[in-house]
C-alpha cells in the first residue's frame, strides 16, 4: 500500500511493485492524472486519506509513505496500531531495486532528463530495462513515468531530498552536479555535499562512479571520494567539455532543429556523433552522461586499463545509443511545447532554481535567437526564494520580459517575510513585473499579446516553476484562440 500514490515518485514505484506481483492499493489527497494512470494499471487508488482504507481483514504487508506524509496521517496511525510495517519511499526503493543491476542517476539538476534519456537509449539497444523517472516520458507507454522491463537492469532517478538515495546500492552511479538545493532541509551547500558524499559510498563493491567535470560541487565530490577510497581511482570516470574529461563533448554547434550537434570522444579517441533535438549546454552534458553510462554498463566487466581501447561492439552500441538520443522526445514539463497561436509559442518548464532558470533561458535563446522571450516565473517555496534571492535575479538576463507571480508555498508558512515582488524588484536590465495571482497573469498576457508591437510578432512564452504555474500556458492559449476567433 502506498500513501501519496499520486506523486511522481510513489506512482512509479506502485507500478513497478504491481508488475512484480504485489497487490497494490494507495491514496492521495486529490484526483489527478497520476491516479488515473495507476488505476488503468489495475491498482486501487483512493482520493483522500482514511483509516478505513487499512483494515484488519485486509491487512497490508507494508505501507510505503512519501516524505510529504506526516506521522499524524490517519492511515499511518491505523497501520501502526495494527502492527503493519511502515517504511519511507527511500527504504522501499532500496528493497525494490536490490535484485537488479542498478544504474542510479543523481544530482541537484538534470536527473529527470538524464535518466529518461538513459532508459530510452538502453531500450534502443534491446535492453529491456525497468526505469523509474521523476517525470512523464513521452516515449514510455502511455507517457508514464515508469516502464517495466524483463531484464535485470534498473534505471532510477535518485533523489537526494531527505537522504532518499542513501538506501540504494547502485552498480553504476552518475552525479550530474552538486549544488545548494532543497534549502528547506539542507542549511547550506556543505550539507548538500555531505549527503552526496554519503551517496557515492553506497556503490556496490566493484561499482563505477561517473562525475561531471563542469560542476565545482561534483569536482569536490571527486576529491572527497578519492580521499576516502584512494585505491578506487580506476573505478571513477568523468565527463565534460574540457580535455581532462574521460568522456568529452566537442565541436558543439547549433543544428537546423534548434538543438545541438556535437562529437563525443573517449580518452581522446572518437566515440560517436550526436544530433540532439534539444538546445542548451545542459542537455549536451545530460546526453554525454548517457553515452558514458551506456559504455560503462556494457563494458563494466573489463578493467579500466582496457577502457581506452573499447571493443568494436561497445563502440557500435555507443553509436546506436547516440542515434537514439537524436530521436529523444523529452519529458513533460522539461521545455515542453504546450501549444501556439499566430505570433506566440508557449513552453512549460519545471525550472525553479536559479541554475535551472539560467540553463532554460540559455537554451531558449539558442533555439530562438531572433524572437522575444517572455517569462512567467512562479517562485517555489518561501525558503528557496529567501535563501537564493541573490542568485535568482541575474538568472533572467536572457529574457526580454519577466512576470513574477506570488510564491507557491507548497505547505510552507512565510516566516521569511519574502514575496515574489522582492524578486521582481531585484531583476535589473530586464523589464520585470510582479503580478501576484495567476488569473491576473493570464489576463495580462492575453491582452499584451493581442496588443503587441509589430516588432514583437514572434513571442516565446516560458512558464517556469514547480507549482501550479503549468495552468497559465493552456489558459492563455485558450483565451487568445477565443479572441482571434471572435475578432
Write the layout of secondary structure elements.
Blueprint: E1 2-3, H1 8-19, E2 25-28, H2 33-40, E3 44-47, E4 62-65, H3 74-81, E5 85-88, H4 89-97, E6 101-106, H5 111-124, E7 130-132, E8 146-147, E9 153-157, E10 172-175, H6 189-200, E11 208-212, H7 216-228, E12 236-240, E13 247-254, E14 260-266, E15 269-275, H8 281-298, H9 312-326, E16 336-341, E17 344-349, H10 354-367, E18 372-377, H11 382-392, E19 401-404, H12 420-426, E20 431-434, H13 438-450, E21 459-464, H14 472-486
Parallel strand pairs: 1-2, 1-4, 2-3, 4-5, 6-9, 6-10, 7-9, 10-11, 11-12, 12-13, 17-21, 18-19, 18-21, 19-20
Antiparallel strand pairs: 7-8, 13-14, 14-15, 16-17
**What CATH architecture of the largest domain do you see?**
3-Layer(aba) Sandwich
Alpha carbon gap, first and last residue:
53 Å
How many beta strands in the DSSP annotation? 21
CATH level 1 name of the largest domain:
Alpha Beta
User: How many structurally independent domains?
Assistant: 3
Placed side by side, the strands forming the largest sheet appear as: 8-7-9-6-10-11-12-13-14-15
User: What is the CATH superfamily label of the largest domain?
Assistant: Mur-like, catalytic domain
Overall shape: it is: globular
The average pLDDT is 91
Low-confidence stretches: none
Q: Note the main sheet.
A: 10 strands, mixed
Give the count of helical stretches: 14
Measured as a percent range, the helix fraction is 25-40%
* Helix-strand category: alpha/beta
β-sheet strand percentage: 15-25%
InterPro entries: Mur-like_cat_sf, Mur_ligase_C, Mur_ligase_C_dom_sf, Mur_ligase_cen, Mur_ligase_N, MurCDEF_pg_biosynth, UDP-N-AcMur_Ala_ligase_MurC
Catalytic activity: UDP-N-acetyl-alpha-D-muramate + L-alanine + ATP = UDP-N-acetyl-alpha-D-muramoyl-L-alanine + ADP + phosphate + H(+)
Protein name: UDP-N-acetylmuramate--L-alanine ligase
GO cellular component, one term: cytoplasm
